[in-house]
Amino acid sequence: RTAPALLEIEDLTSSYGAVRALDGVSLTAEAGRITAVLGANGAGKTTLLRTVSGLVRSSSGRVTLAGEDITTASVESMVGRGMAHVPEGRGVIAELTVHENLRVGSLFRGKVDKSEYDRIYDLFPRIAERRDQPAHVLSGGERQMLVIGRALLAQPRILLLDEPSLGLAPRIVAQIFGLLRRLVDSEGLSVLLVEQNARSALSVADVGVVLNLGRVVVTDSARTLMADEDLRHAYLGF
Ligand code: ATP
């Protein structure tokens, strides 16, 4: 291979006390692709993202970003290296306005040009309409758009997304995933998407990685995984 993969996870293991949540996980997220990590509740998906972004310390294994070892890099340094993590749960600051919440996304950078906010508002017209309203008035889908927009303000090369579809209507999920697809196809963004909603995730992803009890069961093209009925029934819940 000529260039290293954008994000390479090798033999990653991490535990919470005696619970081994990740047990030798290896996977690759290529540039310009959506890589979906799928699996049931408790498979280790959230722990994977938390370990990659430095919130949980691995007990062994290696993570590299564009060939640079980031296994023990701090959470704070990840943004500067081009990685933005959108955790599960859509953490907006309820009392702040939508625009103020977006500004939080620029804190780790120098001055952010107005045009960058305009770009986020162009991507998410629903958010633009509510820019001066407190974030607590937003619907779940709007909150998800806001936290994705906030992460995009950090100008990441790769976006780590934890369960963005959780609790959202299918129409809103399709809208958000469609937007991710456009950003990947037209702006070279890369996405590592963690989802329990495997059907929706596989419909937007290029590659799927199925986790079960902290281990990778299979990695293949989204198309191939979608066509595998036994796999879908055994691990993907549809
Ligand atoms: P979910 O969809 O519920 O987030 P998941 O696939 O993301 O599921 P993880 O949350 O990564 O799975 O959990 C993997 C394993 O680690 C599970 O056995 C879980 O009970 C355990 N675990 C997760 N977080 C903690 C924690 N803070 N303390 C102890 N055990 C934990």
Automatic annotation (TrEMBL):
Which Pfam family name is an example for this entry? ABC_tran
Q: Which GO terms describe its molecular function?
A: ATP binding; ATP hydrolysis activity; branched-chain amino acid transmembrane transporter activity
Q: Which residues form the ABC transporter domain?
A: 7-238
Transmembrane spans = none
- The answer on whether this UniProt entry bears the keyword Transport reads yes
Q: Which Gene3D superfamilies match?
A: P-loop containing nucleotide triphosphate hydrolases
* Keywords assigned by UniProt, alphabetized: Amino-acid transport, ATP-binding, Nucleotide-binding, Transport
Which superkingdom is the protein from? Bacteria
Name a single GO biological process: L-amino acid transport
Sequence similarity: Belongs to the ABC transporter superfamily.
Annotated protein name in UniProt: ABC transporter ATP-binding protein
Please spell out the taxonomic lineage of the organism that makes this protein. Answer: Bacteria, Bacillati, Actinomycetota, Actinomycetes, Geodermatophilales
